[in-house]
Amino acid sequence: MRRNFSVDGMSSGEGTGRSPRVVAVLGGGGFVGRELVGRLVALGHVVRVGSRNPEGDQALARFPGDGRVEFIKASVDDEGSLERVFNGADVGINLVSIMSPDVRAMHRVNVEGARLAALVARREGVRQYLHMSAIGASLASPGNYGRSKGAAEHVVREVFPEAVLLRPSVIFGPQDSFFNMFALIAKLLPVLPVFAPKTLFQPVYVGDVARAIVTLVEPGHEGLTVEAGGPDVLSMKDLMVFVLEASGRRRLLVSVPGWVARLEADILESLPGHLLTRDQVAMMGVDNVVQQGAVDLQTLGIRPAAMRSIVPDYLRGSVCESWRRFRR
C-alpha cells in the first residue's frame, strides 16, 4: 500500500530545509520501521535498512519520495554485518528487540545486541544515534522483557553517551499486535478475557512514534530520554471495551484473576506465536504510562493522534489478516 507521509506537518512534496543524510535503521522492516523508513524516504534521505531478511523488505523501496532505500543483511549479534550497516552513516537507529519465553535469547538480542550495535555505530563515526526502548524499561521490572530493556538502556549509554532513548507505550496502527490480537480473540471466543483490568495504558500511534524518531535524530537532541504516549490513558478493562466497540462486536468481558492468567500463559507461551507469555502477564500488572515530568511527544511539538480516530478503520475487517499473522 502506497502512502503519502507527512513529517512535522509537511507533505512528502514540500521542502523540509534538511540536508539529505545516510540513515541506518536496524529492524527497518518491522512495524515501526516501515513507518519510519517511509517518512525518511519522503524527506529525501538515503535509508540503509539492516535486517535478517532483506529479501522480504523490498516493498520499502517503493515508498514515494526523493530518497532511496538500501538493503543489507544484518543481525545485532553479527559485528561484521553491523559494520556494513553503519559504515558511512550519519544517523544510526536500532529498533530491534524481542519478547520471548526464552530468557537467554531475549538477553542476547535486547541487551548484548543493543550494546554491540551502539558500539559499532560509534566506532564507525555515526553522529546521531537512537535506541528504541519502552515505557517500563527498568532493572527492577517484574518482567524479564522490562529488565532486558532496562539493561539495554544502561549498556547503550555506556558505549554511546549521546544516544537518544525513546520509550513508547503500547504502539497501535494497522498492523499492530495489541488491538489486532484482542480483536482476534473477540472473533474466536464468546467472551473477551480481561487481564489486569485496572492497569493503565497510554497507547501511541505508530506514525507519531516515527515522527518522534525523525525529530530526535536531528542535531540538538543528544542524550535525551523521551517517553511517548497518546492522548488517552485507559485501564485495560476500558481498552477491551474500546476493542469491542471499534471492531463492532458484542462480547461478555470476563476479568481474569492473576493466578489464572499465569496458568494460561504457561500453556499459551509454548504454542506457535506465543499469544500470551508469563512475562507479559507479569508486566501487565504495572501501569504503562508516561511519567509525570518526562520529556514527551508534546515537548517535541507533536500532537499525538487519538485511538478513536484511527483504530476502528483497521479493526473492522482486519481479523482474517491478523489470524494469518498470528499463526505464523
Overall description:
Mean pLDDT is 89; it is low at 6-17 and 322-328. It is built from eleven helices and 15 strands. The chain has helices at residues 31-42, 79-86, 103-123, 144-159, 179-188, 206-216, 236-247, 258-268, 278-283, 311-315, 319-327, and strands at residues 6-7, 10-11, 22-26, 46-51, 68-73, 91-94, 128-132, 164-168, 171-172, 191-195, 200-201, 204-205, 225-228, 234-235, 252-256. Helices cover 37% and strands 17% of the residues. The strands form five sheets. Strands 5-4-3-6-7-8-13 form a seven-stranded parallel β-sheet, with helices on both faces. Strands 1-2 form a two-stranded antiparallel sheet. Strand 1 (6-7) and strand 2 form a beta hairpin.
In a few lines, what is going on in this structure?
By secondary structure, this protein is of the alpha/beta class. The chain has eleven helices and 15 strands.
